[in-house]
Amino acid sequence: MDVGDFYFRGNTTAATGNNQSFSFAMIFGTETTFSVYGWRVGRSLDRKWYERLSDNDFRKKSWLDPSFFYESKNQKEGEPYLVERDADGKFINNKWALNDVSTSTTQSDWSDDYSGFGPDKYQYKYNSSASWIRSRINSSNGFQSWPWLYVNMKFRPHNGDYRTHTIGGAVDYPIMRIEEMYFLKAEAALHTSGVPAAAKALEDIVKTRNSVYTCTATTADAFLDEYVFQKGIEFWGEGINYFDAKRLEVGIHRAYKGSNCERYQHCIDMDGVYVGWTPGWNQAELNANPAIFHYNNPYTNPTTYYVFKSNDELRPYYGTEITE
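Above: the chain's sequence. Below: its structure in token form.
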């Protein structure tokens, strides 16, 4: 079953006539032969979250592991991920590049092989061939953080039918799933029954995704950190986490060495609520009504840090070990 089968079905209107370009699958999907938007955008999970998520969690299969794009021919089973570069910083000994040219956009220069992800060597289920995806999603096409992209495979055409837009583009916008109610129950338990009850409720949810999961939080802050992470993984790309970020004031913390952000402007380290999370009155309205000028919503001053000042400063750290 495609992940898309599980999440979105039934919206045939959005996939027909002049509306077909506005379907959720086309804008947010990553199928390379279904939507040009998908492969070019390459919407990705944050690297820290990807590495934090257990390999035993089936949700981790919603993002392409770096080894899908680059795996050294000298990589040994069970040993740390090996990255090899030449003096110019280009990848060498790429197992999937047939001619060892990891920047080629020619499909025949890439292999369709894949050794598998995680302890069970899971083979990603995609409609495009691996060689085609590799020839499209690489640094020559503008993906500067390749292969540390963690490109999503979560949103996909129904039944994998990317050739028929009335089927592949027929999706529903994700509004609410029953899983959200269970997460809300866990958060409510924290405030009514304490950390142990909340941890137990969170375990009950996540064990359906990772059977060996244990919530080890012993304080409210530790629980909320784990809660935001697990709920963020569960509803990634569905718009739910936006409200948690505002309500719980989780901030944005993506400005670290080794981040998979492609542009330094996205590398933000910020506490509290980001100003842009709540739309305010536009400038025309403010000009017409000075009385509301100092009451615009939001009227906040979050602590924001831009660690990197340019892309040239950011990019030397792509793929390096996360040390902070």
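Confidence is low (pLDDT under 50) at residues 1-11, 34-39.
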